[in-house]
Amino acid sequence: MKFNIALLAGDGIGPEVINEAVKVSDAIAKKFNHEITWTPALTGACAIDAVGVPYPDETHEICMAADAVLFGAIGHPKYDNNPSAPVRPEQGLLLMRKKLGLFANVRPTFTFPSLIDNSPLKRERIEGTDLVFLRELTGGIYFGEKGRRDDGETAFDNCVYTRVEVQRLAKKGFELAMTRSKKLCCVDKANVLETSRLWRETVQAMEKDYPEVEVSYEFVDAVAMRLVQWPNSYDVLITENLFGDILTDEASVISGSMGLMPSASVGEHTSLYEPIHGSYPQATGLNIANPLATVLSAAMMFEDAFGLKAEADAIRAVVNKSLEQGIVTEDLVAKGTKAYSTSEVGDWLVDNL
Amino acid sequence: MKFNIALLAGDGIGPEVINEAVKVSDAIAKKFNHEITWTPALTGACAIDAVGVPYPDETHEICMAADAVLFGAIGHPKYDNNPSAPVRPEQGLLLMRKKLGLFANVRPTFTFPSLIDNSPLKRERIEGTDLVFLRELTGGIYFGEKGRRDDGETAFDNCVYTRVEVQRLAKKGFELAMTRSKKLCCVDKANVLETSRLWRETVQAMEKDYPEVEVSYEFVDAVAMRLVQWPNSYDVLITENLFGDILTDEASVISGSMGLMPSASVGEHTSLYEPIHGSYPQATGLNIANPLATVLSAAMMFEDAFGLKAEADAIRAVVNKSLEQGIVTEDLVAKGTKAYSTSEVGDWLVDNL
Ligand SMILES: CC(C)[C@H](C(=O)O)[C@@H](O)C(=O)O
Ligand SMILES: CC(C)[C@H](C(=O)O)[C@@H](O)C(=O)O
C-alpha cells in the first residue's frame, strides 16, 4: 500500500521524537512492502516565527490531502507567561482540530509491567489498568462565544453542545466499548449543567442500539476521585472537551508511563496521531527526549488509520522489547544503568524490528 | 461566649455525623465556658419531602440569624438517576451558597501519620502533604445563564466572572498564604478561556500588595497531574468554581483520609462548616458512618468563625488520639481489630477531651 502522511513536527522536542517515529515507520513499511511519502509542514511556535500564524493555510492543505497526520508537540516558553498574547501556538492546535473536524480525541491509559513501579500509585491500585478516554474535541467551552463586557471588568465563556455533536462522539464510544469489555462510562456534571443534561439524555437514548454495552453515568468530580482510587475499574469513558482535558491528563500520570502514552484524534476529514507529552522545551536539541510515545502513536496510525494491525503489533512488540531490555532514555533508566539517547533508542528499534 | 449555630443535618448519614459533632462541640463549650444554642433547620431531600423545596425560606432565615452554620450532607438515591428532575437536593445547596454569599470554599487536604498507608499513593509521594484549596463558590458556570435552543437540540451554559468576584476570592488566598508558607498557586485555563485570562490578570495585579507571597500560575490540566504526582509541592491554591469542584475532590482522595476532611464556606453573611464526604445513603441509620470529618469541621468553626484556637486544637488533639488508639469506625479499622460505631466514637471523644 501507499500512504501520504503529513508530518507536523512542531516545537521543542517535537522534531526529535518525530524523527525516530519516521525511522521506525519507514522500517516497518519496508518490511511489509508499503510506501510512505512524508510531507512536512509547519505548526506551532515555529510556524508563528516563520509565517506569523500557528496553523498556516498551507499546513492545513497538506493535512487535508494526507491519509493521516503525525504530530509532535507544540509550545514555546516565550508564550508561557502571557496567555493574552495576540498569537499563541495553542490557537493553532485549536484551529487545526476545528478545521480538520477532529471531533474525537482517543486517549488510552495502560501500564507496562516493567514500568509499573514508576507509578505514583501503589502497585495494587494501578495493576491491570487499561482504559480509554474519548474526549470531544471540537465543541464545548473551547469554541463557544467568549469575550468581555463592562469595559473589560466582566469576562464570559459560553459552553455549547448540540445533540448531533454528542451523538457522533457517543457513537464512537459505544463502538469502541463493543470491541473491548462492553463497559461505557459517560462523564458529566448533569446535576449542575444543562449541556451535561443534554449529554446524558442523548447517551441514554442511544443505549437501546447497543443492548450489550453496560452504560454508567458518573459526575466529573466523582471520576476525578475514582481515577486515583481504582483506575482499573474503568474501561471506555466518554466526555466533553474541558472535562476531557482535565481527566485525560490526570489519567495519564497514574500509569507512571506518561512519556509513553500515544493518542489519536479522529473525525471528518483525516486523523491525527501524537504523543500526549508536551514540547518539553528544556530538553530541546539535547537528544534525550523519550521517543516511545511518538513511536506508539505511529503504531496507532498503522492500525486505526490504515487498518494494518500486524504492522502496529510489530511496532508495539519492539517497543516492549526495548523496555524489557532497558534500551531507554534517561527518564526511564534504572538506577546505575546507562541511558540511551533519543536517536539510539530509535536506531535500536529499527534494528530489532 | 455565647453562640447561636444553625444545624443543617441534611440527608443520609448527615444526622448521625452531625449528632456526634454536636456532642463534641457541647463538651468543648462546657469545658471552656461557652454556651451554644443549636437551631436545627431542614435542607436537602428531607426538606423537599417535608415542604417541597430543598432550601426553605425558614432555613435561610435561621442561617442568616446564626453565628455559623454546621452542615451534614445532602442527597438521596431517588434523585440520582434523574438529573432533570424539577426539584433536586443539589439545587438547595447552590441556592444556599448563593443566598448566604458563601463565595469561598476552603478545602484543606492533609495527612494523618497513622493513616498514611490508606492513601492510594505511595508513602513517599503523599508524606508531608498539607495543602488548601480556595474554591470560588458563587460564580462561574454554576450560576451563569443556561438553557436550550433549537427545540431542545442545543444546550448552553454560560461561564461568567467579574473582576470583583476574582479579587475577593484571591484576597482570601493571599491572606491565607501569608499565614502559611507564602506560596500561592492560581489555577486556570488562561490559554483557552477568557474568564481564566481575567482571573490571571486580576491576580497578577494583586501581587504587588503581597510582595512576600510567591505566586505561580498553572493550567488546570497540569494541576490535575501534579496533584497525583507531587501533592506535597502545593500549599495554597485558588481557583474558579468548576475547576475547584473537580480538583478538590481529586485532592481529597490522595491523602487516604477522605472520610476525615473538613471544609468551610465563608463569605458575606455567615460561614458554613461541613465534612466533604457525601450523604452515603447505603449507611443511613446503621450507626457506622465516620463522624470525624464533621467533628473536624466543628473544630474549623471554633477557630475560624469564633476565633477560638485553643478549643479547636483541643478537638483536633482528641481526634488524633482516637486515630492513634484505633477508636475508629469500620472504614478505618485495621485488619483483625474491632470497629466502633458512630456514636461510640463520639462518646469516646467526649470522654477523652
Ligand atoms: C494546549 C491546550 C489548548 C490543549 C487543550 O486544552 O486542549 C492541551 O491541554 C491538550 O489537552 O491538548
Ligand atoms: C452536589 C454538587 C452540586 C456540588 C458541587 O458541584 O458544587 C458538590 O459536588 C460539591 O462539590 O459540593
Largest interface pair = A-B, 61 and 61 residues
Structural class of chain A: alpha/beta
Task: Give the termini separation of chain A.
Answer: 19 Å
Largest sheet properties of chain A = 10 strands, mixed
> What would CATH call the architecture of the largest domain in chain A?
3-Layer(aba) Sandwich
Describe this protein's structure:
The structure is a homodimer of 353-residue chains. With 353 residues, chain A is an alpha/beta fold. Chain A folds into 2 domains: 1-102 and 267-353, Isopropylmalate Dehydrogenase, CATH 3.40.718.10; 103-260, 3-Layer(aba) Sandwich (Isopropylmalate Dehydrogenase). Chain A has 12 helices and 12 strands. The first copy, chain A, has helices spanning 14-31, 45-51, 57-65, 89-99, 123-126, 163-179, 194-206, 220-229, 241-254, 292-305, 309-324, 342-352, and strands at residues 2-10, 35-40, 68-73, 104-110, 130-136, 146-149, 154-162, 183-188, 214-219, 236-239, 262-266, 271-275. In chain A, the strands form 2 sheets. In chain A, strands 2-1-3-12-11-4-5-10-8-9 form a 10-stranded mixed β-sheet, with helices on both faces. The longest helix of chain A is centred in the N-terminal third of the chain and has 18 residues, at 14-31. The relative contact order of chain A is 0.17. The mean pLDDT of chain A is 95. The interface between A and B is large, with 61 and 61 residues. Strand 7 (154-162) of chain A pairs antiparallel with strand 7 (154-162) of chain B. One 3-isopropylmalic acid (IPM) sits between chains A (90, 93, 245) and B (191-192, 221).
